[in-house]
Design a protein that fits this description.
This protein is mainly beta. It is 4% helix and 36% strand. β6 and β7 form a beta hairpin.
């Protein structure tokens, strides 16, 4: 099975495969999703995972960190599997209070101040690829989103290169960051989406923050059937994953709805990943 980046601007399967063959999709092959992305309301979280173990202990917690320095989003970039010597980054989290100073020059409370609360916006589905079902192509839905902080854990994470990493090349920078356990609501007026989930908001500087929330698996709580997103024609496009991506720039908030699709059968088909809709304020890359 080939993995490709699913670009809404692709006009054919051939163009779709040729443009971006290296983007890894949502991991939908494991039997059991992580605790942050399993369950129903207020149980699904950031698909990239969360540092585990005792964050206050003497031993560092080793996790795989992915980074994209161009966007400041530590959840972007290529994901690597287990290799000799462990993951590329060693993360050491320290739990801090909401009103404690952070290396970003402000408290978590101060950083969250202009980002919390409900917002009304629009969710607009893409016009392409042409395999999108006519019922969804270009459709705009009134949307309400809300970032909530309800006393969740706050961590300052120091991330450094693992000197024993044995993988080929290096997939991204090890980025120090502030992580805040939050809630995120994503509800369309007609309840096609009715999602109230947990996630991890990540700050890499005082202005920008990012959040990724996995909806499928485990599954949508709204009425939208993912099987209806694409036309019923050969080769079949089967949706195997759906995520919300959210980016803050100061008080501005915007993002995308991303999906993973399997196109065709296991032998001749491929897996693609990319945007299927956009929402909120325009955010500069």
């Amino acid at each position: 099975m080939i993995k490709a980046n699913l670009s809404p601007m692709a006009l054919s399967l051939a163009v779709l495969f040729a443009c971006n063959p290296d983007k890894n999709p949502i991991d939908s092959t494991t039997d059991e999703p992580s605790t942050e992305s399993s369950g129903t309301d207020s149980t699904a979280g950031d698909p990239t995972g969360d540092p585990t173990g005792d964050p206050t202990g003497d031993e560092p917690v080793v996790t795989t960190t992915e980074g994209d320095p161009s966007t400041g989003d530590p959840t972007e970039g290529e994901t690597t599997g287990p290799v000799d010597g462990g993951p590329p980054c060693i993360d050491t989290p320290t739990v801090i209070a909401v009103d404690a100073d952070t290396p970003l020059g402000n408290t978590a409370q101060g950083l969250l101040a202009d980002k919390l609360g409900p917002r009304s916006t629009l969710l607009t589905f893409a016009e392409e690829p042409l395999s999108l079902a006519d019922a969804w192509r270009g459709v705009t839905l009134p949307l309400s989103v809300e970032l909530r902080y309800e006393g969740g854990e706050i961590r300052w994470v120091e991330s450094e290169i693992n000197p024993e990493y044995g993988g080929e090349g290096f997939p991204g920078e090890c980025i120090d960051r502030l992580e805040v356990d939050v809630g995120f609501d994503f509800v369309t007026e007609g309840l096609e989406f009715d999602e109230h989930r947990d996630g991890v908001l990540r700050f890499v500087d005082a202005e920008s923050a990012s959040l990724r929330v996995e909806l499928l698996p485990p599954g949508l709580n709204g009425s939208l059937d993912p099987a209806t997103l694409y036309k019923d024609e050969e080769p079949q496009w089967v949706v195997t994953g759906i995520e919300i991506g959210a980016t803050f720039q100061g008080a501005a908030l915007g993002g995308e709805l991303l999906n993973e699709v399997q196109v065709g059968d296991d032998e001749s088909g491929f897996v693609g990943f990319g945007n299927v809709a956009w929402w909120g304020d325009p955010i500069d890359p």
